[in-house]
Amino acid sequence: MNDVVARALCANAEGVGLVDPEPVVLDIGGPLREIARTLAGAAQPFGLYRWAGSRDYLTVALDGSREPMSAERLASWAEKPCLVVKEARGKGGGDPEEKPGKKSAKIDVALARRLMACDDLAEGTRELSAVFDVSLPVWADRERSGLRLLSPGYDDASKVLTLAGVEYDRGLAGKDGLHYLMKILHQYPWHEAVPVGESRSFAAQVTLMLGEFGRLLLPDKARPPLGLWVANQPGSGKSTLARMVISPVHGEVRGVTLPERGEELRKLLSSAAFGAEPVLFFDDVKALTAGELANFVAGSGWSDRGFHQQRMISARQRTSVFSAANDPKLSPDIERRSLTVDLFAAESARERQAGYQITIDEGWIAAEENRRDILAALWSLLRNWEEKGFPRHGESSLPSFEWYSRTFGSAVMCAGLVNPFSPRESSIGGDERGRAIVELLRAAAETIDAGGNRSFSSVEFLDLAEERGISDLILSPTVKDPAKSLGKALSKQRGRRYSDGQGRQFQFAGRDQTSTASYTIHVEKGGGH
Fold first, then answer.
1. What distances in angstroms separate CA 31 from CA 111, 119, 122, 462, one per listed residue?
2. What CA–CA distance (Å, rounded) separates 527 from 505?
3. Mean pLDDT over residues 377-397, rounded?
4. pLDDT at position 15
5. How far is CA 292 from CA 6, 224, 333, in A?
6. Pick from 329, 331, 349, 323: which is nearest to 233 by CA?
């Protein structure tokens, strides 16, 4: 690696040449604040940064590799940008480069610790929020009236460092970008049996791709939902579709195993948060039920005990989370925090792939020419949205992720695709019992006239579930008291509002209803077909 080029890229892109800067004389005999200010200025062209909102320092190399800066490392690293000196006792001689009365010196670890704790070093060191090897879009101004792509180098407004990496076409028309994505993605077995342009799952796939490409368009505390691919059998393409979201922006990605123990999961999440990892990809999971994972996805910050420490430390949550699974068990908290792509393959992978026009695998996705084409297509969709005045589609909304859904969902709908945040049609994976109970309530509501009320006992609900063939989804075969078990599940639905098969709104058992022997459903007037 060419260190001169690395330093030029790590510095601000404007006005930086490819010439080694002259070492800055750092007199460690002066006041601490002055030493810190001098070191901060000298270190800038050598790639010293501070994670945004923290006192964690690091250096960044040309290839994007990052190395934390500890006091032990700073003590020797400071000799790169600085000629460290201190007052000489007696008459100075020695090194001709030394100033009169000064002699060469070294920063010890104790001084390095004091410098890293000094406000002046923090204030003089540029904050870093992320490092990418592709130019990503950001808002052109605070009013969000336009878009721009980051140039190589450090961007003061976004605090992002862009390294010279994958270049792509900036002028592709929106219709051509969408055509390209449909060309490479139409062969996947989307769950909805409709043309690809009308598929909710295809729209969700494009939204996830656009959301990761446009991640810098979200405000500081806005979060992306969990990107989830659910299939009915192995070989449906869920993992390659996940990589198609991640790789264009981040390069080659490796899936990680979802820890089974809660303690191990928390360690993994903390490592990602404190290391500012851009992505976590859990591949081939059986269940996503951990409350900590749900909190990690939705939260803008993360706190935990520091490794080998007793004190709590906090960090901004910058990590996007993705997962792929065959018929997984999902907790309600995970399901409502996810944007799910549903796949249903009737044939085996071998039979289906025999008819593919394009063989897409990890190598295809990681190839630079394909990354270029995907990035160009995604940028064209955002430019299309910009050219049309950034229209917002109110129906494109996911609670707790409003910024994400209304930004990228609107851009996708502006391109002519369906609402990616519309309800899933697939029943594969997820909270099957919860869905079955809602189906039961809807079936009960259909027996009531508009504007009417009717009370149901747990036994009546059990009979209706048996009639609809969903009792096995609601009750475990080993349950001792089915009516009592169902009653507990129904109690959690108190006060909820739904629509039945006729489109009529109804409310189940108002929150002020105290009886557990029966449950009242009220169907509102109007609204039906």
1. 12, 13, 16, 79
2. 7
3. 96
4. 32
5. 39, 16, 10
6. 349
Encoding tokens for residue 6? 């690395």
Pairs from 289-296 (Cβ < 8 Å, separation ≥ 24): 289/329, 289/330, 289/331, 289/334, 290/262, 290/265, 290/331, 291/331, 291/333, 292/262, 292/265, 292/266, 293/265, 293/269, 293/321, 293/334, 294/331, 294/333, 294/334, 294/337, 296/269, 296/321
Residues 6+ apart with CB under 8 A from 328: 230, 285, 286, 287, 288, 429, 430
Residue 411 — very low, low, confident or very high, per pLDDT cuts 50/70/90? very high
Structure tokens at 282: 């859990």
Sign of the Cα torsion 58, 63, 65, 70 reads negative
Please report, to the nearest 10 degrees, the dihedral formed by the alpha carbons of residues 2, 128, 157, 133 taken in order: 50
pLDDT in tens, 450-501: 999 999 988 899 899 888 888 887 887 777 888 888 887 887 787 888 888 8
Which DSSP letter does residue 174 get?
H
Is residue 514's pLDDT more than 60? no
Question: What digits encode the pLDDT tens for the residues 81-117?
Answer: 999 999 886 554 555 555 567 899 999 999 999 999 9
Q: Is the pLDDT of residue 20 over 70?
A: no
In single-letter form, the type of residue at position 332 comes to P
- 301 in helix, strand or coil? strand
**528 or 115, higher pLDDT:** 115
Assess contact for 400 and 298: CB atoms under 8 A: yes
Let me know: does 429 contact 328? Beta carbons within 8 Å.
Answer: yes
Place of tokens 């105290």: 514
- The helix or strand, by DSSP H or E, that contains position 263, with its residue range, turns out to be helix 262-274
| Contact present, 408 and 210 (Cβ < 8 Å) | yes
Query: Can you give the pLDDT at residue 338?
Result: 96
Give residue-wise pLDDT tens across range 219-252. 988 999 999 999 988 888 999 999 999 999 999 8
For 205, 221, 374, the CA distances from 400, given in Å and listed in that order, are 20, 11, 28
Q: And the tokens for 222?
A: 């806005």
DSSP H helices, 78-218, are 109-116, 119-124, 174-185, 200-213
Alpha helices in 93-217 (DSSP H): 109-116, 119-124, 174-185, 200-213
- Give the confidence band of 18 by pLDDT, cuts at 50, 70, 90: very low
Three-state secondary structure call for residue 134: strand
Average pLDDT over residues 209-216: 98
CA distance 86 to 67: 29
Token pair for residue 459?
């036994």
